[in-house]
Amino acid sequence: MPDLQFDPGQTDWNLIRGFIAVVEQGSLTRAAEVLGLSQPTLSRQIAELEKALGTPLFERVARGLKLTAAGDRLVEPARHMMTAARALGMAAASQDNSLQGTVRITASEMVSAFVLPPLLCELARQHPEIQIEVVASNQVSNLLEREADIAIRMVRPVQSALIARHLTDWPIGMYGHRDYLASLPDKNQLAALPLMKQFRWLGMDQSDQYIAGFRDAGIQIDRHFFDFRCDNHLVNWQAILQGLGIGIAMRWLAERHEGLEQVLVDQPLPALPVWLTTHRELKSSKRIRTVFDFLADGLLEQRF
Prior knowledge:
This is LysR family transcriptional regulator. With 304 residues, the chain is of the alpha/beta class. It folds into three domains: 87 residues, Winged helix-like DNA-binding domain superfamily/Winged helix DNA-binding domain (Arc Repressor Mutant, subunit A, Orthogonal Bundle), CATH 1.10.10.10; 100 residues, 3-Layer(aba) Sandwich (D-Maltodextrin-Binding Protein, domain 2); 92 residues, Periplasmic binding protein-like II (D-Maltodextrin-Binding Protein, domain 2), CATH 3.40.190.10. The strands form four sheets. A five-stranded mixed sheet has the order 4-3-5-12-6. The relative contact order is 0.14.
């Protein structure tokens, strides 16, 4: 049996963090994306940890990486180490009364691209001493693990350790470019066709978000309903603008583009709830509280 004794005091805690990320994600690629690292960097971290421990932690299998027996024994202690480190970091951050420093915000790709920039410009004018990091991702970052300080989410968080404010609801609709719509048959003919036969639809690839939304509206579809599929919302948005077909968009954004027209206006679609979230302890940090309150006011005051 290999000797797994090593000095954690001499070990970079990022190596432990990388190890746990690979365990939870099952692959270097996905873990690197979650951590915001390149795959080679994360691979070097795992190799460095394995060298410090004197034993391999993973073996390659057909669908990714599998823990070795030695790696499996390390998972629980490593998680305890990360929990203790996060608790220490959280406690330290909650005592920070300085505005100077960094606040990490996570939001969806669309919110990061179209909502945050004008707000952050004003924040920079008011508080130039605050640095901002934005995690533009549709994955729900874990505030409890300090993957971000503040999150703008379209779902209500359920963890009791989080503070969450429901700010507003954004109506959504089905939109297409007028050039695409002009290329279609006569509208009277369209009305007589089933929904899926009327238009070319733009949707998601791996995600079932749109499928679930259509089914909630009483329309039973599968992924083949969509003639174009991509999980990146920014790509889908550009596809709508270029006239590739009909896609789902936030009304406030679509209404800024004269070339877009809403279709199937009478078809009800659920609005997107907007939640602003942070950890309870982080709210006592002056810097994070300042950014949190600024975003709350900005999202309510501006026409989004």
